[in-house]
Design a protein that fits this description.
Elements: H1 3-19, H2 30-33, H3 36-62, H4 80-91, H5 99-103, H6 109-129
Length: about 130
């Protein structure tokens, strides 16, 4: 069974339960529909999808194509922390959950994501100023 088929089966059961008036009596859990291996694959696929989406977002915001490097002059106004986060995420392709380990900070993944988006805005602003 493919990932899409598994997800569709889960979604259909979940939708049915939500529409049901006795939703509290229906058990709709991932474990009911997937084996442990399938759940692990589902989580990996979701993480991969999220990563691809973030990379696409980064490239769209900065107006660059995959494989292109960003000129160092656009990173000059970033703090050391921001440069490290940007390089780990954009160049080394680390996940938001991995980055705090590399910069030795206690940050939650969503906090790293917010910082990263702020960094992208700063870089874009620098790019616009140099046009």
């Amino acid at each position: 069974m493919s990932f899409m088929e598994m997800y569709a089966a889960y979604s259909a059961s979940r939708s049915q339960a939500i529409r049901s008036k006795s939703m509290s009596t229906i058990d709709v859990t991932l474990e009911k529909h997937f084996t442990a291996e399938e759940l692990e694959e589902l989580a990996r696929q979701k993480e991969l999808s999220s990563y691809i989406s973030q990379c696409s977002y980064s490239m769209e915001i900065l107006g660059i194509r995959e494989g292109e490097e960003i000129d160092g002059k656009f990173l000059e106004n970033l703090s050391t922390r921001e440069k490290n986060i940007f390089r780990l995420r954009f160049e080394e392709r680390k996940g938001f959950t991995e980055i705090p380990k590399f910069i030795n900070e206690q940050l939650r993944p969503y906090e790293v994501e917010l910082i990263y988006k702020r960094i992208l805005r700063k870089i874009k602003k620098e790019m616009v100023n140099h046009i």
